[in-house]
Design a protein that fits this description.
Layout lengths: L2 E4 L3 H6 L6 E2 L2 H11 L5 E5 L4 H12 L3 E4 L8
Parallel strand pairs: 1-2, 1-3, 3-4
Helix pairs in contact: 2-3
């Protein structure tokens, strides 16, 4: 199945958490991906506007992780 990770900052995540997602802020994930992620697992990456999630996916794909960007519906509150 996979893990849904929201890379928004903690405050933004707490204001509007996406059901079923976990929050690992952008900087924390990029600095600690080896400790936080498993190369044998699938991850879905999202954030409020899609900019940070796009960067995270690009970087993690380069390092061999199975990641997919998820675009959050902009009409959601």
């Amino acid at each position: 199945m996979g893990t849904l990770i929201d890379v928004s900052d903690t405050l933004t995540y707490k204001e509007n958490p996406y059901p079923g997602s976990i929050n690992i802020p952008y900087e924390k994930l990029l600095l600690n991906y080896k400790e936080l992620l498993n190369k044998n697992s699938k991850y879905y990456i999202m954030c409020k506007k899609g900019l940070h999630s796009q960067k995270v996916v690009s970087i993690l794909e380069f390092y061999g992780y199975d990641v997919t960007q998820v675009i959050r519906n902009s009409e959601e509150k």
